[in-house]
Amino acid sequence: MANADVLDILSDTIPTTSRGAANKDEIIREKKKGPKKSIRRPEGMKREVWSLIAQDDRESVPIVPTDTKSGGNSYARWIKHSAMKVRSWQWTPFTNSARGPNDTFVLYHWQHKTNPDDPPQEYPFAKFNKHVDVPTYTDNEYEQYLQDKEWNRNETDVLFELCRKFELKFLIIHDRWNNILYPDRSVEDLKDRYYTICTTLEYARTKRHTDKYNFDAAHERRRKEQLNKLLSRTKAEEEEELYLMNELKRIENERKERERIISQDVQKFVQQQDQNIPTTNNCIQRTVSSSSRRSSINQDYLQRLNSSSNRTSTTQRITTCDPPVGIKFPEFKRPGVFLRSQRMILPSSIPNKKLAVIDQVLKQCQLERNPMACEEIVDEFNDLRSDIILLFDLKNALNSAEYELQTSLHRLKSENGSTNMGMSSTQSSGAGINSSNEPSKTQFDFLLSQPSTPNENITSPRLSDSFEPTNIVRTSTTERKRRALSSQTSTIKKRERPS
Amino acid sequence: MSVVNSESVVTNTRTPVVIIKPILYGNTAKHLGTKRDSDGHTHRWSVYIRSFNNDDLSTYVSKVQFRLHETYPNHARMITQAPFEVEESGWGEFETQITIFFADPNEKPVVFYHHLKLFSTDPDVVAGTKELVNEHYDELIFQEPSDLLARLLNCAKSLAPPTDENLGTAKEYAIKKHDTINRVKQARQRVRSEIQDLTERLRITQENIKRVRQRTMDNNSHMGTFSLSVHDNIKREIVD
């Protein structure tokens, strides 16, 4: 590109020898290619290094900074210039039309010698002298549209004069603003006044809205204020901000990671239990949703209602269906030789917590970790371990559900307590409070007591009772709350007993 | 013998064929009585793999590699003949990697691990009068073996009529198998019943949560009207 530009400029300046130039161009290209091909990469030099130095391309980067800013192949340019005819320069006087029609000030500059027959050319830079078109307003227009309580007519006139004088260079206008005669104005104030007038005038004259003048003073002020603040920060503040940003990023990442893990777990669980035990996955979903964000209780509640209506219809199936598989063991379907015991190897995806649970249950049932590997045992043993995992998951789900029940019960109790208190105080006095409170509490307390289902092996302790309550969703704080809650309920009971 | 999987199982069609060969692998160990001065070894042990029903393993197994602990000289021992066994002495337990190569070199070898056991709490073993036996029963499953290997597998004949000792181990394993199955089944029954129990409890808990929430909602909407019928409903639900 750069070379093409150079060519353009050059051909512009030498219009007489255009044919010859084309020929020269060809020659130059020939010459350029010639030496380039002969230079080969020296042995032992890295390709990358060579490509930095070798000038085989127009866009190649010179390794040494050059003072010719045009770039391109300096060698080719040198050839080009050396092939051209030397043209003489002349110290010529010129006038600048941009200085005004009456200005006859003469300056001199070096110029290529021109044909004396040609008409004198205009100074080429004069055309860059552009003027801003600052609108003017009549008295009538001002009276009608441009009144402002902050600005008086005189001041506005001064502003427009300055605008005209300094070509809308508002910083200069601000600098020249006479703040003794007129109130002190900021750059934004000046700009705002000017552009508002422009817009109003434009609308008044054309009856059309235009976005030619677009200036949001409030935004500008905020922007400058912000920049000022940014500039005036201390080192410590800057560091703190950086630290906070990093922290925020870290926390965000952690949150995402946590949510990803939870959703994965839920997905897995849902897949496993899809048809068989809908209640459990509902529960898991609920714990997830409630812990991840307690957005709106009402929505949550509606969801619950929906899910529970589905649930009741499917509960009958639960007891009849086989529990689904909790572990997916590797299957050996492909041809080959393998050992039966290899089918019992637990997949590595199972977390250590669950492995520990399996071990614990096996120990309680007096079973080996690697029993005799024959078909019946392997199948049964794998199923057993699947069931253990399922039991573990169920136990966790139940724990969360019970916890939720407790909290909601507690809330209900406290609410009821307060309402009953209010009611009883109006009805009767003294001992009535206790008696009216009591039934409500006992009525709810039995919900917490675990339903005693007939258990065949009562003598042996329940396997699931020994599980550690491990739930990713639950944190130590909720655990603490639960403990506090349970102690609270026990004190309530104690208090009630004597009465 | 009758209880444990016998010779081979051939499914109805030619392919796919599944042939099962029960094997035993493990180690025996015996205390030397003293700590040998030269190398500090205390036990004499042997690690082995052999057929469960006394057929000739070498008809379809070409060689077995026992990878011992690295401190042994030439620790990857390759055994190419019938008693696939390594006898050594040592002072410590370690994990042995066993690789079985088959007669058909195209068949991928089977790799597994055995924990070489030397020490036991059995008083007889501690005294050095009885040999410690740490043996595992396993089955080699040949899934769609190559023709060559299938033929070799099918013609693997018993080396000798089973001795009393063989019959003894067979019986021992049959009992053990029966016992294990029973125990696993019992355990599974127990876990199953608890699963059902927990499922039921979970369901009830959720119903209760629903009810309590309902009550909270009701309370919020019209305070103080406390009807007993709702509680009766809850009670009935739980009794159900």
Please describe the topology of this protein.
The complex is a heterodimer of chains A (499) and B (240).
Chain A: H1 2-13, H2 18-38, H3 47-53, H4 74-83, E1 89-95, E2 106-112, H5 139-145, H6 153-166, H7 170-176, H8 187-206, H9 217-231, H10 235-273, H11 278-292, H12 297-320, E3 336-339, H13 352-364, H14 375-427, H15 432-448, H16 476-496
Antiparallel strand pairs in A: 1-2
Chain B: E1 18-31, E2 43-51, E3 61-67, E4 76-79, E5 84-90, E6 94-102, E7 110-116, H1 123-127, E8 132-143, H2 147-154, H3 164-221, H4 228-239
Antiparallel strand pairs in B: 1-2, 1-8, 2-5, 3-4, 3-6, 6-7
What do these coordinates show?
Chain A: Residues 414-476 have a biased composition (Polar residues). Chain A: GO terms for molecular function: transcription corepressor activity. Chain A: InterPro entries: DAMP1_SANT-like, DMAP1, Swc4/Dmap1. Chain A: Residues 123-201 form the DAMP1 SANT/Myb-like domain. The complex is a heterodimer of chains A (499) and B (240). Chain A has helices spanning 2-13, 18-38, 47-53, 74-83, 139-145, 153-166, 170-176, 187-206, 217-231, 235-273, 278-292, 297-320, 352-364, 375-427, 432-448, 476-496; strands spanning 89-95, 106-112, 336-339. By secondary structure, chain A is mainly α. Chain A has 5 domains: 2-83, no CATH class; 89-118, no CATH class; 139-231, Arc Repressor Mutant, subunit A, CATH 1.10.10.60; 256-320; 323-420 and 464-499, no CATH class. Chain A has a two-stranded antiparallel sheet. In chain A, α6 crosses α7 and α13 (352-364) crosses α14 (375-427). The longest helix of chain A has 53 residues, at 375-427. In chain A, 15% of the residues are buried. Chain B folds into 2 domains: 18-159, Immunoglobulin-like (Sandwich), CATH 2.60.40; 163-240. Helix content of chain B is 35%, strand content 29%. Chain B has 4 helices and 8 strands, in the order βββββββαβααα.
